[in-house]
């Protein structure tokens, strides 16, 4: 059985590329969300093996969406990896402090993305 990853990215073009790459080259099943509310809803309904969470989302931030996922006993176990263009130690510390498991700065190479995913779920 293939592992399922919830990809949370508001930019359609970036989400399409990431989803296609994760499916075709890494063999993962993907679930898509374009905003924070949708991410929370899909995390609860689908219970993915891992969430790749953009931080800059149009409705609520990825940080607030991650807090909601981590605060729900049914989804608290799901590892969340931040993927963002926000570059600073402050943001990295903040996301790790709320329970996200890693922080990737965009642009992210596919090799680094895959290695990061594999740290938290078996390939």
Q: How would you characterize this protein structure?
A:
The chain is α/β, with parallel strands linked by helices. It has one domain: 3-Layer(aba) Sandwich (Rossmann fold). Helix content is 44%, strand content 20%. The chain is built from 5 helices and 5 strands. It has a 5-stranded parallel β-sheet, sandwiched between helices. Strand 4, helix 4 and strand 5 form a beta-alpha-beta unit. The longest helix is centred in the first third of the chain and has 13 residues. The mean pLDDT is 93.
- Strand tally: 5
**Morphology call:** globular
Strand content: 15-25%
Identify low-pLDDT runs. Answer: none
Could you outline the blueprint of secondary structure elements for this entry?
Blueprint: E1 4-8, H1 12-24, E2 29-33, H2 36-46, E3 50-54, H3 62-71, E4 80-84, H4 89-97, E5 102-105, H5 110-120
Parallel strand pairs: 1-2, 1-3, 3-4, 4-5
